[in-house]
Structures are given as structure tokens and as C-alpha cells.
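[job 4471] stage=fold_predict status=RUNNING
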Amino acid sequence: MDTSNSSKGLNLAIIGLGYVGLPLAVEFGKKRPLVGFDINTNRITELQSGYDFTLEVSGEDLKQASQLSYTANLDDLRQCNCFIVTVPTPIDAYKRPDLTPLIKASETIGQVLKKDDIVIYESTVYPGATEEDCVPVLERVSGLKFNEDFFAGYSPERINPGDKQHRVHNIMKVTSGSTPAIAEVVDRLYQEIIVVGTHKAPSIKVAEAAKVIENTQRDVNIALVNELALIFNRMGIDTQAVLEAAGTKWNFLPFRPGLVGGHCIGVDPYYLTHKAQAIGYHPEMILAGRRINDGMGEYVVSQLVKAMVKASIGVAGAKVLVMGLTFKENCPDLRNSRVVDIVGELNEYGAKPIVYDPWVSASEAQQEYGITPVSEPQAGAYDAIILAVSHEQFRQMGAAAIRALGKDKHVLYDLKYLLAADESDLRL
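[job 4471] inference complete, writing C-alpha cells
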């Protein structure tokens, strides 16, 4: 390995061109030649035409990344000597880490791995996964030996889908490498595009742990506020009013109650708890927070049903408009959306949920969850309305236009505090 610690001789490839990989590839593509690889040929064709369905990267940004080429052909990776892996790391139906995409990506790289190559992982994992789960795959497929023939690094992604202010280049990046020399190479590589600086962690495991606790901390804090909302609702106290009052103190943390989904906050804690249990420690607080947050969809529907009963609105067969399906506002990202919990609970009660979300692809929603959103809601058609996601389109509609979608007698549940307290019938 070149001991100059320079990143200039790296021929870069990024494996996985989704919400994480594409913005990273575009930033590097403005600075240096690189190959963007994805096994989805439709995705490659789309990007070659200058369009990104995730809406994370504009057509203009794609044009500016003039040194970025796209491929689904493994042979196009043979010229590369540094591979950045940005594939998803989901959980399965039993809340267990699913490393399948990561293992398959490692197998792909192993087929083209050469002496002195570097493989950098960005996917969220538990501490130890890079060296204990991924590296052995690279060794097995390539026949090369770790830290003698090839090297590894870890630099956790910090992409925030839909956020147009915090982008790849202006979010500080944690970096690490499997040797001190490689750590320096990895750090300098990212310094090429990160204008706010990098933080070089002392080991890959430290960098992995830092990533997994970032969102675990947020998850636990949101769980606390969700639990407070459950308590205050029983006491007849408006949770938002309480949080606004408490927020006048300078060090009060501004968390809000709600559904906790997405590819990070609703997933990362399970990676940490999986590893903790594997080494014989049962995490109490983290799993308690997960139980609270995973149960919020059921709670929301139970509150809605009670309100409908009190209003003498029959629940069985009731048409309930669910406004929003994505895991967060103003983006088309459906990954691990907990709005589906609300839809499932409504079905359990015999109601008829109708989903409306102007941000999502109907075919993707059908493929992912078996839900086909309507293209437009009907005026005066619904027995209940749930504002589940705070898309800007819903905010601009205002209370009168949203109310007009309901029947003369209906219940409006504002889950996201889009409306004033007196403009809805229920708030979390």
C-alpha cells in the first residue's frame, strides 16, 4: 500500500445509488472521475437520463457531476481500487438486522477486489459488523487477506432525506480505517467534498458505534415525549401547549410526539440491541423506547375510534382518509413508514382507510405495502380524516379545505400539529 496517505491515486466506485449513494456520488462527481454502480438497471437508465426519483438530487446537480458515470455492469468496476458501499441495512419482520444487501454488495466487490484496494462502508451497522461480517466475505470471494492485501474503512452516512439545507458537503463526516495509514487516506478522501470538516475516529468500531447511537438517542427522546403525550392525553392536557411552555427554557430539547419510522431512527436501535444481546447484555431503556414508538400507530387509531363512537359515527365500514404515507414530510421516501400501522389498525376495526399522498409513487406503495393511494381525495366523502404527515401541500390547504373533505359529521385527527388547537378534533 502506498504510504503517502494521499487519496489522489484512488479510482473510486460507489456501490448503491439510493438516498445515500447518489448524493455522495454526485458530490464526488463534481471533483473527480468515479463509477456509480447499482444492480437496478432501471435506476441506471433513469440516472443516465438525468432524473432522480428520490428527488434528493436535482437534474442540474446531476449535470454538474460531469465526471460521474453510471453502470450495472460488474466489469466496469475492475478499473477501480476504492469502493464505497452505500446499500440499505433494514430489519426483518422480527426486528432483527438484515445484512443481506451488505453481504451481497461485499460479494460483488470481492469479485473485482485487487491487491491494495480499499473498501469503505457507509451503511448503518452494529459495532463490529464491518470487520466481523463484511471483511470475511471479501476475503472468501477474493482470496485476499485483510490488512495485508486489501484494507477497509467506515464512514457512516448522515443523509437526511428531504432536507435541502443539510447536504452531504456541509455535514461533518466521521471517518475511520483498518490501519492508521488507511484511516488517513479515507479521511483525506472525504475532505475533498466535505466543506465543514471531518472527524477521524480511532477505529472502525468507534465509527460504527457513533453512527448507531446518533439515531438511538433521538429514538429514546421521541419515545419519552410520546409517553408524555399518552399521559397528558389522559389528563386532558394539550401536549403541544406543554412542550411550547417547557421550550421556553434554554436547554429544553425540542422533540415532538409522533410516528417514528424511516430508514434510521426506527431501525438503528435494533442493530445496537441485537449486538448488545449477542454479548449478553439486555438493553432496557432502548427497547422500552422502541416498544413505545412502535405502538403509536395502534394508540392513534384507538383514540380516533373512541372519538368516532362519541360522535355517533359508525366505525365498521367508515371511510377514513389518511393524509400522508411517507415516513416524513416533503419527500417520497416510504422506507419503514409507520403510517402503515395506522392503515393496518383501521382495517382491523373494519374501517376503510383511503390513503392520499401527493409525494409517493402509487406503484411503489402497492409493491412495498399493498396500499394504492388515491390520486385525489373526494370532497365530503370521509367519516374521519387523519393528518399523518406534514407535507407542505397539506399545510397550505388549511383547516377549511381539509374539513371540506369530510362528511357533514366527521372527526379530524391532527397527528402532526399542522393546524391550530381549535381547528381539529384530536391531537396527539
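[job 4471] summary: DSSP finds 14 helices and 13 strands in the chain.
[job 4471] exit 0
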